[in-house]
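TICKET: design request
STATUS: open
ATTACHED STRUCTURE:
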């Protein structure tokens, strides 16, 4: 093709058709520019298609992460709800000056546990690397940021606080005041009457209750946001088909 154009230019020069030569040369330049622009456009289309597919794959992974996490949440939430109810019952019992007995062993054992789980972020991290701004649905982008950058850290911070409470307050108290203990199952005090009159035990229960309520709220917020995210992701994936 290049030889063909070159031959045309040479013939025009040999025939002394300078005006036509310049017109032809300009036309040839225009064709080259158009060819370059078309090539660039095709390249942009290819890059955009690659990016679109990467975003779509990452969204699929985020969806799988959310589904996996949601399978665990209901059971954990119910465990925390039960634990809160037990602690409220024990606090009320102690404040009414009722002496505890062996029927409370299982309930006491449920008052000092950790109820948490890791939040899977592999899909979100990949999507974040590609750029959340590539999402056409800005509500989805906003909800992803809210879930992973707000709710997740708050939930993890609450879990850390619960672990610290268990390690620094409950375990030392249990070692001193209980003769038998099975995590999440039961706790047998050295003396039921002494435990029932111990203001430190009552205070520990109240502190623990105050920490479990925020833990529960953070889990409920995660569950609510994840359901909304799954719906938004499904809608986004449908529009890409």
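STATUS: resolved
RESOLUTION: sequence designed for all positions
ATTACHED SEQUENCE:
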């Amino acid at each position: 093709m290049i030889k063909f154009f070159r031959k045309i230019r040479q013939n025009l020069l040999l025939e002394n058709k300078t005006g036509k030569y310049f017109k032809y040369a300009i036309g040839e330049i225009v064709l080259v520019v158009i060819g370059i622009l078309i090539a660039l456009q095709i390249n942009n289309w290819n890059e955009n298609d690659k990016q679109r597919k990467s975003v779509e794959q990452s969204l699929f992974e985020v969806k799988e992460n959310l589904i996996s996490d949601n399978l665990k949440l209901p059971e954990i939430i119910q465990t925390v709800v039960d634990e809160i109810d037990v602690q409220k019952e024990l606090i009320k019992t102690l404040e009414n000056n009722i002496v505890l007995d062996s029927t409370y062993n299982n309930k006491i054992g449920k008052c000092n546990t950790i109820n948490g789980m890791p939040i899977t972020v592999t899909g979100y991290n990949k999507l974040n690397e590609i750029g959340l701004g590539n999402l056409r649905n800005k509500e989805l982008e906003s909800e992803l940021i809210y879930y992973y950058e707000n709710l997740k850290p708050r939930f993890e911070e609450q879990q850390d606080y619960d672990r610290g409470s268990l390690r620094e307050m409950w375990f030392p108290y249990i070692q001193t005041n209980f003769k038998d203990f099975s995590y999440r199952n039961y706790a047998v005090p050295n003396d039921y009457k002494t435990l029932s009159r111990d203001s430190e035990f009552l205070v520990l229960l109240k502190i623990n209750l105050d920490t479990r309520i925020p833990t529960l709220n953070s889990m409920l917020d995660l569950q609510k946001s994840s359901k909304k995210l799954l719906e938004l992701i499904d809608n986004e994936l449908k529009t890409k088909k």
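CLOSING REMARK: The first strand starts at residue 178 and ends at 182. Confidence is low (pLDDT under 50) at residues 1-5.
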